[in-house]
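Researcher: Good morning. I'm working through a list of sequences from a screen, and I'd like to move beyond sequence-only analysis. For each chain I'm collecting a predicted structure so we can compare shapes side by side. This is the next one on the list. No need for commentary yet; just the structure.
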Amino acid sequence: MSSKEVYNIVVIGASAGGLPVLSDVLASLSTKTKVSVFIVIHLSESVNPTYTLQRLQERSALPIVIAEEGMPIEHNRVYLAPADQHMMLEKDRILVRRGALENHWRPSIDVLFRTAAAAYDSCVTGIILSGLLDDGTSGMMAIKSAGGRCLVQEPEEASYADMPRNVLSNIAVDYRVSAHEITYILADIYSRGDCLPQEVPKDLQQEAAITLRMSSNMESTITLGDPTLMTCPDCGGVLTKIEEHGHTRYRCYTGHVFSEPQLDDQYLKRTEETLWVALRMMEERRNFMVNMDNRPQFSPDTTGRRAQRINELKDHITQLKSLLTSLNN
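Model: Good morning. Structure tokens for this chain:
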């Protein structure tokens, strides 16, 4: 490889509780390692990533920049995903797009890891730090299948262990380590010489290509798995079931992606929202009927039926309230 060609790719995913650990990792990285580091941190849309950059830069020996569309990839530089946009890798350049949410995150760890694995195969090292839920699990599978290495922060020391534990539950990782050991492992890995190119699995190439386009169609999506009778809770598109070594995901043809727990959670939320709408409409109808004028043209039979209907609506409202309470138990 030429001296200018980038081949030491490190991708890091962090969420709740991950920022202090990430700061420690960057503080220990040496310019001698010649790595290009890409980071996705789960932040609220309202959080300015410049604040995160400044906090990390205080201790980092490597310069940190917020990734931009078309930015070239350079050695000894750290790239931070911007707020509310996916960061993706092609060979030698970065793509930044506002595509569909994955696991209800944008930027998504899975999106970065998957595209990095497709572009740089065995030259990628993926690192998952403290965080909630399971973003990053599918991405780590992609890195592993392309011949890369997977490091996970020891869940017992993580502030929030969900992300590390979900990876460990689905993948035989290369390293399960304390945060302070990560930089030593990276130095050891990249002191062994150049990585050896490896063929990227076809299914990973296909999904990475769909991810990079940030759009798809039914024909290309069903090549990744089996179409289901279920629909996307975000857009109503048909969901395709994708199996990955015992880990199941669902992707719609507009680009939304859900793990099984995330899809279950979204269906529960949509169910609750629908029931609240039904409850409001029943309350409104009952109030309307209660306040209708007892005009002379209404016969006693009509008034009696209305009173009966008001009581029935009251019963339905009570049942709906009970159902809504039980949904969250």
